[in-house]
Amino acid sequence: MDNTLVGRRKEKDELLNLFQSGRAEFITIYGRRRVGKTFLVNNLFSGDYAFKVTAVLDESTERQLKNFAKALSEYSKEGVPFLADWFTAFDKLRVLLEKSNRKRKVVFFDEMPWFDAKGSRFISALEHFWNSWASTQSDVMLIVCGSAASWIVKKLFRNRGGLHNRITRRIFLQPFTLAECRLYAQREGFPTDELSLLETYMTFGGIPYYLSLMNKNLSLAQNINHLCFTPGGELREEFDNLYASLFSNAARHILVVEALGKKKSGLTREDIKRITKLPEGGSLSEALEELELSGFIRKYTPFAKKKKGMIYQLIDHFTLFHLAFVKGSSDDDPDHWMKKRETQAFRTWRGYAFEQVCLSHINQIKKAIGVAGVITHVESWRSERSDPGVQIDLMINRNDQVVSLCEMKFSDTEFSFTKKLAQELRTKRNVFLEETRTKKAVHITLITPFGIKRNDYFDMVQSLVTAEDLLKD
Question: Residue 1 above 50 pLDDT?
Answer without folding.
Answer: no
